[in-house]
Design a protein that fits this description.
By secondary structure, the chain is α+β, with helices and mostly antiparallel strands. It folds into two domains: about 40 residues, no CATH class; about 80 residues, no CATH class. About 35% of the residues lie in helices and about 20% in strands. The protein contains four helices and seven strands. The protein has a three-stranded antiparallel beta sheet. Strands 1-2 form a two-stranded antiparallel sheet. The radius of gyration is 18 Å and the shape is elongated. Bound molecules: zinc ion. Zinc ion (ZN) binds next to loops.
């Protein structure tokens, strides 16, 4: 497009701020900046995918990062678990009991267990999720 120029750091910061307001208003999240200075606005699921491709997150962290309810995060995660996208594998890092260290390796549900079957404690390190390149 004629007249398009690289943005400097201050202009980028202004645009990022404005986009954060737009995200809150229309329910889309994470604007992806491209090297040419233009932005694409991602849907929640695209944003979630991008986050999980970078590092593992718990559902609570994702709900905070994307400003959506945890329940909605689980919906997206369930979809991604079944259809992680070509070249990606959905990885569930199991919950761990904070008291005895019991690891919930056999649990397939995405939600955090409420109680440890070994010691009965209720304090869990939440399961985390990631997308790994195949
Ligand atoms: Zn335990």
């Amino acid at each position: 497009m004629a007249g398009l120029k690289e943005l400097d750091a201050r202009e980028t910061a202004v645009i990022e701020f404005l986009l954060s307001r737009v995200r809150l208003a229309v329910g889309v999240s994470l604007a992806k900046p491209f090297s040419n200075g233009r932005f694409a606005v991602l849907t929640i699921r695209q944003a979630l995918k991008q986050l999980l491709q970078e590092q593992p997150y718990s559902a609570l962290e994702l709900s905070q990062l994307l400003s959506i309810p945890e329940k909605e995060v689980y919906g997206h995660l369930q979809h991604l678990a079944r259809a992680p996208g070509q070249g990606w594998r959905f990885h569930l890092i199991p919950a761990v009991c904070r008291n005895c260290g019991f690891t919930f390796t056999k649990r397939e549900r995405l939600t955090s267990p409420s109680r440890c079957p070994v010691c009965r404690h209720q304090s869990m390190k939440r399961p985390r999720f990631a997308l790994e390149a195949r």
